[in-house]
Specification:
325 residues, alpha/beta, three-stranded parallel β-sheet, 13 helices
Length: 325
């Protein structure tokens, strides 16, 4: 056996060992339960996470523990993920309200969403509405504006936190309608819904899924949808733009991120798992029922969207002269 042949055999054996090692490493993830941080109070956006979790568990072969970690419009929970080990076992289910709007409007933000998070999947876009308590004496956008002009500074609108899309949409309407309304932030969309139904705030701009459970209760009214077109499921509810042409809501989407430094192998495994879970029939039905649009888009697209919307919302906030709180 020649030296050249022995060298060739050794090289082939080394290559085979490397392939087997990489395959074993690939199969090793995940080897323990995952921790999914939802940085908002229970009952807001987390039902969207919970409905897709069983399919993710099935595909990953490991349990997923969902943790609600509310506070500072999602910043507290998001920072937990930003500071976590980049091993794929701590992931973030978050809205653009936090990683875009919150960056500008919350003081002392201690992480950079571009530098300190790894994009995994751009998951879906929710539908937003204009809602009031049933007791509030208006039934249309025109009546709302007329009432606000008669009562400047006396109408409060609630949001899920400073910098949230609910907050920004309230400011956009305030400017478009030239009305004086007062912002009241809460620790998530679920507490906001409770306060709205109780009549402790007169107005809100929540996601449709936050209001849908109450639509048949007689406790809430929808004045408009903040989308370009009317919804097929709510054909009698006009758009805001029908009263204020050109109105566009602030950027709104929900995505999955991991800590900075997450390997491409893990990102791909999680992204494909999330995409498959979002396209499961029961998950699609949940989104259809709640008026949200599934995207299941790539990490690259999420990265592009994050950077573009940071620039867009930054300009909007400067234009509206909204100050960080």
């Amino acid at each position: 056996m020649t030296d050249r042949f022995l060298t060739f055999v050794s090289a082939m054996m080394a290559a085979a060992c490397l392939v087997l090692s990489l395959a074993a490493h690939s199969q090793a993830y995940p080897s323990k339960p995952l921790r999914m941080i939802v940085p908002y109070a229970p009952g807001g956006i987390d039902p969207f996470a919970r409905v897709m979790m069983p399919k993710m568990v099935e595909l990953l072969g490991q349990p997923i523990v969902l943790e609600n970690r509310p506070g500072a419009n999602g910043m507290i929970g998001s920072e937990i993920v930003a500071r976590a080990a980049p091993d794929g076992y701590t992931i973030l289910f978050v809205t653009s309200s936090t990683v875009v709007g919150g960056v500008f409007l919350i003081k002392d933000v201690r992480f950079d969403p571009v530098k300190d998070l790894t994009p995994i999947s751009l998951m879906f876009e929710p539908t937003h509405v204009v809602a009031t308590p049933a007791s509030f004496p208006v039934n249309s956008m025109k009546e709302l504006v007329a009432y606000a002009k008669r009562n400047p500074g006396k109408i409060s609108y609630g949001s899920s936190g400073i910098g949230s899309i609910f907050h920004l949409n309230g400011e956009l309407l305030r400017i478009a309608a030239d009305i004086d309304i007062v912002h009241v932030p809460y620790r998530g969309s679920a507490p906001l819904a409770t306060e709205l139904l109780a009549g402790r705030v007169e107005l809100a701009f929540p996601a449709l899924n936050n209001m849908r459970p109450f639509l048949g209760s007689g406790k809430v009214k929808l004045l408009a949808v903040a989308e370009p077109k009317r919804l097929p499921s709510l054909p009698t509810i006009p758009t805001v733009a029908e009263t204020f042409p050109g109105f566009q809501k602030a950027p709104s989407w929900i995505a999955m991120f991991g800590p900075s430094g997450l390997s491409r192998e893990i990102v791909d495994r999680l992204h494909h798992t999330i995409a498959a879970a979002l396209n499961a029939p029961e998950v699609r039905k949940f989104h259809d029922d709640n008026g949200s649009q599934i995207l299941a888009d790539t990490p690259e697209r999420l990265s592009e969207k994050l950077k573009a919307d940071l620039e867009k919302v930054g300009r909007l906030i400067r234009q509206l002269n909204i100050q960080a709180e």
